[in-house]
Design goal:
Keywords: NAD, Oxidoreductase. This protein is of the alpha/beta class. The protein is 43% helix and 15% strand. Strand 1 (7-12), helix 1 and strand 2 form a beta-alpha-beta unit. The longest helix is centred in the middle third of the chain and has 29 residues, at 116-144.
């Protein structure tokens, strides 16, 4: 028996990276998964995003863990499409218990100060997309009537301004990730009467395709910004997806049943500096 048996989780950005790690780990503990991803590149974001093949692989891994999964393609920036995607999953799996708003983008290494399309793409995905996820998924948790857990994936950049370089990309990223904290705190208050807990996790750089791609790596080599990756713990340039997943698992499980409205860094001490 798993601690999440017979629960249903909505996870955005589920096709790869942290989202896949969260999906598989929740499935291993008994949850069925509504796995959402846009499966398409965004013009203003200068690295490849996940594909439908990536989402299908996440679905395969969830099924291999013995759980049901509904993979659905939707861009979190599009509320109507996201609501439709979540409903598709609900129609097959039932109402939702867990919401993990994980989808996000970045453009580290883009030095432009007036890049409006980059700023808009980052804020629309990282902040508006999280709000859209709440709007699309939480009514199902309320309807189910047995409480639940919502985890918003922010960033260590949501707790500090360290690493700001004046670019539109970094301004947008820090602002959007700070905004997620405001959403989390407001949602924790709004949903408490329904016994729904809302918390946020704040990783530093994570070893996923969001960071490990040619654009970001080359940009950081050409314009090093030690404040972005500096941590207290030695030899931890990047945390691993599983490190973030462990925090998520605690927040959605019974061990955190009285924890709501908190920010949890998974950052090897980045925000302490």
């Amino acid at each position: 028996m798993g601690e999440l048996d017979d629960s249903v989780a909505v996870i955005t950005g589920a096709a790869r990276g942290q989202g896949r790690s969260h999906a598989v780990a929740l499935a291993e503990r008994g949850a069925d998964i509504i796995a959402v991803d846009c499966c398409a590149d965004i013009d203003a974001i200068p690295y490849p995003l996940a594909t439908k093949d990536d989402l299908d692989e996440t679905a395969r891994l969830v099924r291999a863990a013995g759980r049901r999964v509904v993979p659905v393609v939707a861009d979190v920036r599009d509320l109507a499409r996201l609501e439709s995607a979540v409903q598709t999953g609900i129609d097959e799996l039932g109402d939702v218990d867990i919401v993990i708003a994980n989808a996000g983008v970045v453009a580290i290494g883009d030095p432009q100060t007036h890049a409006v399309p980059v700023f808009d793409a980052i804020v629309d995905t990282n902040l508006k997309g999280v709000w859209n996820t709440l709007v699309a998924a939480v009514p199902s948790v309320i309807r189910k009537g047995r409480g639940g857990s919502v985890v918003l994936v922010s960033s260590s950049q949501g707790l500090t301004g360290r690493g700001g370089d004046g670019s539109a990309a970094m301004f947008a990223y820090a602002a959007s990730k700070h905004g997620v904290v405001g959403l989390m705190r407001s949602a924790a208050n709004a949903y408490a009467p329904h016994r729904i807990r809302v918390n946020s996790v704040h990783p530093s750089g994570v070893a996923t395709p969001m960071i490990l791609n040619d654009f970001v790596v080359n940009g950081m080599l050409q314009n090093p910004n030690p404040a972005i990756s500096q941590t207290l713990l030695p030899d931890v340039p990047l945390v691993q997806p599983q490190d973030v997943t462990e925090a998520v698992l605690w927040l959605v499980g019974p061990g955190s049943r009285y924890v709501t409205g908190v920010t949890i860094p998974v950052d090897a001490g980045h925000v302490v500096m």
